User: Fold this.
Amino acid sequence: MSRTAAMAIALVAAGGATVVPAMAAPTAVTRVALPPAPTGLAYSYDAATEQATVTWDPKDPADTVTTGYREGGCSGPSRSDGPCFVRASGPLLTGNSFTFQHSATATTYFIMCAENSVFQRTCSAILTITN
Assistant:
């Protein structure tokens, strides 16, 4: 039984009015703009260490929405090839490069996502990394 229904029953049983108390109106919702998607993605590959470094354009000084970046990967070179996944935990990246282990025989479909203060993300185009 809901709290409102229980209160109405209690009021009727006590011989009181059957008016149900008003509920508080919801407070205003503050909207946060989506961050701009990272652009200018490029990569370099170091065969000796089997590491790929992805870079993207630095954050625009006028961008007050982006709080950082998260890397991710996709199933193929197009979003229609399957889902993309973004790392959801751990600290945000704050620079404009990311280095990771990458096998010389692998192909990776990489995305970089900008994140705002309420954890909404806008992601880059897919970058295909091969060697």
